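For reproducibility, we list the full input for the zinc ion complex.
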Amino acid sequence: MLQIQLDRNSVNVNSLPNQCPVCKSKISAIQTSVHSKTRSNCIEIAYCCPNEECLSLFIARYETLKPTPTSINGFCTLIECVPNSLGKPDIVEEVAELSPLFCEIFTESYQAEALGMEQICGIGYRKALEFLIKDFCIYEHPAEETKIKEKALAKCINEYIDDSRIKQCSYRAAWLGNDEAHYVRKWTDKDINDLKILIKLSVLWIQSHLLTASYSSSMSRT
Ligand SMILES: [Zn+2]
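The corresponding predicted structure, in tokenized form, follows.
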């Protein structure tokens, strides 16, 4: 058990905030003098993140589970720290450059999922996959850009992707992505986590393909 000093009172708490909710760094939060007893069983304390690239103020909410008239001196549990930023997924540089819209749509889907919007984030991931694959196909076959944009995703994978690793993973991601859009699931033993793994694999194989092509052309034998 730990004790926090608030003016003339002290509060017993189960833990101090150890992660900044804004930058997500592990921190020893700096307590400010600002605090408020917002309800009989709830205390809010303002902290500052010591990470020099962040320095954000945030609020730690503590509650006593059974409110009593003396709850400010009771044992308080850390409930949450706010504002809780949604964060961004890590997307490798080569793919971020290849398809900025994939990054944008994938990030929005990731944040929708973080907010608990489980019914719509899957269709977002499916849309992100389409931009990733079509932008990759256009990069590899620039003369076919108009056709690629108009074709169904599965046809693009079939006709324009030669790399078998990208092909296998993106096909399967597309199948699971369709399950996120339709009333009846075909792949009942798979879920959105499998879809995310297959998109991640597609991204990694595309990165590997692009880097290999880049080094092959910049270091060709004379
Ligand atoms: Zn921070």
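Residues 20, 22-23, 25, 49, 51, 54, 56 surround zinc ion (CB under 6 Å). The two ends are 70 Å apart (CA to CA). Both points were considered when choosing residues for closer inspection.
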